[in-house]
Amino acid sequence: DVVMTQSPLSLPVTLGQPASISCRSSQSLVYSDGNAYLNWFQQRPGQSPRRLIYKVSNRDSGVPDRFSGSGSGTDFTLKISRVEADDVGVYYCMQGTHWPWTFGQGTKVEIK
Amino acid sequence: QVQLVESGGGLVRPGGSLRLSCAASGFTFSDYYMSWFRQTPGKGLECISYIDGSSRYINYADSVRGRFTISRDNAKNSLYLQMNSLRAEDTAVYYCTRLTRLPDFWGQGTLVTVSS
To answer: Chain B partners of A92 at a C-beta cutoff of 8 Å?
Structure first.
């Protein structure tokens, strides 16, 4: 199975400051169609996951442009340009290139 | 808007069976692949099965293959997961998701507890 490794696992951030989460895969996530099927999800306390980013860098409808995704191959990053209180939760990367699809361990974002 | 509502979770003894249901609305159900995920504090998030719109293409994670069966009824806009031979390690919150190549919308989840 493809192992997804996130860092850091805990991220205390000051309101209004940027945050960055790294996600590395044990194999290239480039599929035969040329796309890398790497998603980012946000899970707020007590809620189900919500997709933020799909195929590395595409923001879902309704997702603030403070969130951005980048990367290629095996290295990917989620950035929040200015953290707001509403951003508290756990963030997961997920690969959908190789079955079984696999997730990172999650990064807990909290306000300092 | 897209809504996915799971039901059928509960407490079951090891070796027992349970059937989860997911009622979908807000989109043309038969046009989409659907899947079941589960989440535990220890193992995190796991995709356990998916099914295409016509029930022709189905896949399972090794952890549930041979014990769980995914199915759908497009006339009822419903997705199902039949879980047999349940084990303690199947204890989790189970989510129904819609797939646009990968999961986009998730239900609120239903808790399955396997314990004697």
So the answer is: 44-45
